[in-house]
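Good morning,

Attaching, inline, the backbone tokens for the sequence recovery test we're adding to the shared suite. The designed sequence is right after.
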């Protein structure tokens, strides 16, 4: 998938990547390069222990700087991927200095004053006044993008979601735990149990209702992105021994009757979505083959005859790409192309 919106030529574009040395930050740099994003000066930002490290980008070498230095450099755009506490402390400081922030943490997603953006769905709501823009959770992004034509054409009444989320969604330490366990190595335990040859029905922190924070994000963020609080969502999040790529089994109850072939065509015609749905030929999405790609893949499209207007979908995407870095870069593209910075 190429750049979603195209680019304007800018004579001065300073862009900061906060968390540039981290797992998502590294993918962010790859996506920026692949999309030929019009950067005249990259500002890689990381914690104090990484300051001074060299990062190569676009044929040039850049030194990692601190947040304080990056703020003084006044970038037009700053993409944050360094955790919620960093975003809460520093995003307002950058915004006050005139920088537009695209934040990949959960810090601002449910703030009523901040917009939660999947560009193919609601980028048109952005204005120059939006200085802090929230990037949704990885599992939410892939689901709502696949569901976009269903919400537009039929309306969504209820969703039952079961996710099969890769360990890279937890972070580099979780990947190290999985890979270490596979070779019998003593590792630091990020999860409360082994993850290799196992599935953990545990994503995020449990609340008093028994749901986890990852499960509640699917409810709250879906409603906010679609601007429809009537959508009912119940979810079970499962961490599986896969390094990259989240998978989701989604059961949707729509408000209107549908033709299954029309559904397939509408999904296939959605920008950023690729239909892989030929079970007779064993064609369906899998995380192994979604890894490293920017699209959201949809398959196993079939009617649920146990309820009126019921539909089943299998949705897969690279959680570090469209689930994080690619979506953030596409937001930046939209800002640039529509003179919103």
């Amino acid at each position: 998938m190429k750049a979603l919106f195209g680019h304007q030529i800018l004579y001065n574009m300073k862009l900061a990547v906060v968390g540039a040395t981290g797992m998502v930050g590294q993918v962010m740099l790859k996506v920026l390069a692949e999309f030929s994003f019009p950067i005249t000066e990259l500002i890689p930002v990381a914690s104090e222990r990484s300051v001074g490290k060299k990062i190569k980008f676009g044929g040039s070498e850049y030194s990692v700087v601190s947040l304080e230095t990056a703020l003084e450099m006044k970038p037009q755009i700053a993409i944050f991927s360094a955790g919620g506490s960093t975003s809460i402390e520093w995003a307002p400081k950058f915004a006050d200095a005139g920088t537009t922030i695209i934040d990949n943490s959960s810090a601002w997603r449910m703030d009523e004053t901040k917009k939660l953006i999947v560009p193919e769905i609601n980028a048109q709501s952005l204005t120059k006044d939006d200085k802090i823009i929230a990037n949704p959770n990885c599992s939410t992004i892939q689901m709502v993008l696949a569901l976009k034509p269903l919400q537009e054409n039929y309306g969504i009444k209820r969703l039952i979601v079961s996710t099969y989320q890769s360990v890279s969604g937890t972070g580099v330490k979780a990947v190290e735990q999985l890979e270490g366990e596979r070779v019998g190595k003593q590792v630091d335990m990020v999860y409360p149990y082994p993850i290799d040859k196992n599935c953990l029905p545990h994503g995020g922190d449990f609340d008093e209702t028994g749901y986890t924070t990852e499960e509640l994000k699917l409810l709250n963020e879906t409603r906010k992105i679609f601007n429809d609080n009537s959508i009912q969502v119940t979810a079970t999040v499962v961490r599986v021994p896969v390094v990259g790529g989240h998978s989701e089994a989604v059961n949707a109850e729509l408000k209107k009757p549908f033709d299954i072939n029309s559904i397939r065509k509408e999904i296939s015609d959605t920008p950023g979505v690729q239909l892989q749905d030929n079970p007779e030929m064993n064609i369906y999405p899998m995380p192994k083959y979604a890894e490293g790609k920017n699209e959201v893949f949809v398959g196993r499209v079939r009617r649920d005859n146990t309820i009126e207007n019921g539909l089943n979908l299998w949705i897969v995407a690279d959680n570090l790409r469209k689930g994080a870095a690619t979506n953030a870069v596409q937001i930046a593209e939209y800002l640039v192309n529509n003179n919103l910075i």
